[in-house]
What we know:
Oligomer: single chain
Mean pLDDT: 76
Largest sheet: 6 strands, mixed
Number of helices: 22
Structural class: alpha/beta
Radius of gyration: 37 Å
Shape: elongated
Strand order of the largest sheet: 8-9-10-6-11-12
Number of strands: 12
Helix content: 55-70%
Amino acid sequence: MSQAERKPKPIGGKPNGAAKARQKKPRLEKSRSEKREEEKPRPQKSHEEKSREEKSAGEKAAEPTPEAVGEPAPPPPESVEPGPKLTPEEAEQARKKYLLRRFWISGRGYWGRRGDKLALPFTFGLLVLICVNVGFQYGINVWNRKFFDAIEQRDVHTVYMLSAVFLPLVAGSISLVVAQVYLRMTIQRRWRSWMSTAVIARWLASGRYYQLNLVAGDHTNPEARISEDLRIATESPVDFISGVLHAFLAASTFIVVLWTIGGALTLPLDGASITIPGFLVVTAVIYAAITSTSMVVIGRHFVQLSEQKNQTEAEFRYVLTRVRENGESIALLGGEDEERSGIDNTFGHVLRQWALLTGQHMRTALVSQVSSLFAPVVPILLCAPKFLEGSMSLGAVMQAASAFAIVQSAFGWLVDNYPRLADWNASARRIASLMMSLDGLERAERSEAFGRIRHGKTEDGAMLSLDDLSVTLNDGTGVVKETEVEIEPGERVLVAGESGTGKSTLVRAIAGLWPWGGGSVDFHADRRLFMLPQRSYIPTGTLRRAVAYPAAADKWTVKKISAALDKVGLGYLKDRLEEDAPWDQTLSGGEKQRLAFARLLLHEPDIVVLDEATSALDEKSQDKMMQTVIRQLPKVTIISVAHRAELEAFHSRKITLERREGGAKLVSDVELIPRKRKRNLITRALWGSGVQRRREAERGGKRGS
């Protein structure tokens, strides 16, 4: 029977070889919450993998984890949309404010009940060290006064005694600073570890790292946000808080010192006099106000420029990464000049942002340098009249100068840290943007308002059942609709259709990577699913690891892995199993697909999905590969997405998708009759042109006569 003569079966009809039309068993209705909680299909883990995971979990028990054991993950915060009456500029400002709030919603959890148990003790210890360190600063300040008073009075005994006291003071101050650095950097490291673990876990969960490519939002270059922006976002706040606390305590302490030492200053004015109480304090406040205000005015564009600079840097890294990953295709096409043009253009954006940022740094450096040069001189000039008239000792002048410098440093903390504050602001917003995109995907998974594909278990023994399955984009645009298919164990089903009809999207929905749509995808309770995409993923490391992936490299013996390579035609690589090389760049496209079939033979799944998994193989190699799979795994259920008609010989059913308005639809589900012998290309060409059929008819006529 020719393909044209095959009568299409009703969608969801009986499989090949079934004697009667299968009647579906009634399904028990489940609540929506139960359906959402059903697990999507994943390969079952072996005993060795579970043991390794348990061992790894035991080793990481001491590390901070994003969630306490046994406690469910908190739901994502509700999104906050700008008011409709806001102008675009006001809406953007509201969005940026919320981004910082969104960062702290997650970041403060480090000190919560689901956070790190050592977070609060370390933080308390850091605060205590800062307070004690300010006390040592005050002790050194008092030492300055006594030491210079002794010099002024030429008191040799006191000078020697104070010199001996100075060493313990310095040793204590240095020890406190070192301990403070340890606690500060430990908090930063553990906070970053905690947040990175939480963000990466959410990013990898439920295929969200893949789904982010399908939805709109400010989440480009997530790898740069997680690695670089998250580092800055967790390091800087600890520095800022400890710096602000130290500045506040130092300013409070030494303002009292300045007030006590300086007293009041009387200035003659037109036969009268003006008395300024605490003139050193007043001068310090005015001086700091001038420098801080200048910094704020000059650096008002720092945040925006830092954010743009970080974004252009991330885009530049992404372009370079794409060139490395697609080096073979670029080299074969001779696209070096075009790639160089694209790289130069992207790098030009980086340089322009750096040039703008350089101007900001120059202006802030001007203010900072002027402040640092004048700060030590101003108090001495102010105290000189009192010293010359004898109302202030040399020790008091030096103590006032030291205290003034400390107060000015405390008040000028913003001057010195404004660039870092701007950099943190930009990084926190970038990581918060990624969090918000993940929030949206997670809310869609939990909410009943969004159309979601349910995943469950079959109840009638079928290996796979698509029940009223519809696949849509995240905005509701239909891709595939009203799909009813039931596949029995051992069946081999070919999914066909024109390009763009949604075949690969349907496969992603079956695998649980595509969440949007309706209906359900149900698998047999004891199934093990294995995917073979068109582009085989080759991890870094040894060839043995690449063949065993996603299992560990030592799950199978070298002998068994070598046998699998022999079966798929890669026996010449057996001697290189332990070689650590860039295999993703070394192997050709056909070799990568053969290696993927070797993985399949090792894992021995119950159901395998082939998405153009033989497209890089020639027809002869493709036929041999399919024959090997059928011979080595006779009971495996196969779902293939392919364009080649030759693959029909290795399948028992063929379902066809056709593009329709509102989404592609299954238009036929037919049984395929396996060919007894394989025709070569010339024979098929002759058969298609009618020549071969005339020869067959002539032979039949001669036999009949």
